[in-house]
Design a protein that fits this description.
The chain is mostly beta strands and 125 residues long. The chain contains no helices and ten strands. It is 0% helix and 52% strand. A ten-stranded antiparallel beta sheet has the order 2-1-3-4-5-6-7-8-9-10, with no helix packed on it.
Length: 125
């Protein structure tokens, strides 16, 4: 990462088999594989995500700028899967639980699917 070009968020690829690698926000020049951690410019944790050869796979968490968890869930094959939990910025209390199947939100008792992903993406400031 170039010190002359600061960004709002810096990424650190935390691969158990190799030394950590810094990467540009657009991911140019590398394919993420393993756990990737993103930090805000002030050093606070922004996001944790796991990749399998460039595809989101496994646990995902993002955080409010105050350090509290904003949301958590799982990715499977690049799409949201299973229960995703969303938390209040100030209290940290669970606010909402949504269920996803192949990246589509399941709503109602009949299992109706709503198109499109949703994530917490805490605040970026």
């Amino acid at each position: 990462m170039s010190a002359a070009e600061p960004t709002d968020i810096t990424h650190l690829l935390d691969d158990d088999n190799n030394p950590p690698k810094w990467c540009e926000p657009d991911g140019a020049g590398w394919v993420p594989h393993g756990r990737c951690v993103a930090y805000r410019e002030d050093g606070t944790l922004f996001m944790e995500i796991t990749y399998d050869r460039g595809v989101a796979q496994g646990p995902y968490r993002d955080y409010w700028s105050n350090g509290r968890l904003a949301c958590e869930g799982e990715y499977a094959g690049g799409t949201q899967e299973g229960e995703w939990r969303f938390y209040d910025r100030e209290s940290g209390e669970l606010q909402e639980v949504l269920r996803f199947v192949a990246g589509r939100e399941v709503i109602g008792l009949g299992g109706t699917l709503r198109a499109g992903p949703r994530d917490g993406l805490g605040d970026s400031a």
